[in-house]
Amino acid sequence: MERIMKILQVSAKIDLRLNKSASGDYDNLWPYVKEEAFNKAMNDWVRRQIHGKNQTQEGDEETTMRVDDLQVLLKIDKLAAKDQGDYSRIKLPPDYLYYKSLTPITTSGICESMRMKSHLREEANVDDLVSVPSFAFEETFHTIIGNAAHIYHFKRFKIDVAELTYYRKPKTYSFKKLEDTVEFKDDVVELVIDEACKIIASDLESFNQKTLAQERAENNN
Description:
The protein is α+β, with helices and mostly antiparallel strands. Helix content is 32%, strand content 27%. It contains 5 helices and 9 strands. The protein has helices spanning 7-17, 31-51, 64-70, 186-203, 207-219; strands at 74-80, 82-83, 87-91, 96-108, 111-115, 117-120, 139-145, 148-152, 158-168. The strands form 2 sheets. It has a 5-stranded mixed beta sheet, with no helix packed on it. The chain has a 4-stranded antiparallel beta sheet with strand order 1-9-4-5, with no helix packed on it. The radius of gyration is 22 Å and the shape is elongated. Residues 21-26 have low confidence and may be disordered.
């Protein structure tokens, strides 16, 4: 679906759903209120889609619809690895939001640039996994701690770089830049607008608008 929804339209739709006047003379719903609610609603929506709901048991790639909705946020970065003795450390990118996968590119002797499968494991279990890293079996493990990934090799091979697949942070929108286009598909933006209306209605203690907005957001999630 084409991405054509602009902030101007988002602002107008929020006004319409909350029955607010958008006249220049008096408007109780200030642009910064809509801006904060819309950006918060977008972050909340993204988190729900990736985490999934218990009712539907759907995670970020459980259905083709989830894949379509979230693919705009999915990135692959090739990151430098700094050796730390038993492991190599890669720093997570500034726009990192949620983990997807990590693939180290390794070297041992004359064998170079070999892609290796790496499994995400708990930091507390590192001592129990000493035997796992193997160049011959093309397998290792990593942990995520302190905004970095630790890829373990226990000096059996060298990690040159690592390809990190992750969900980046969604863009933050200013309601002063009305011609900016929202990066998500228009049907997703409509859901985020409903979520934003729910947030604003809650803040304004407007029960009817909150209930209607919540029903729209939940039924179409």
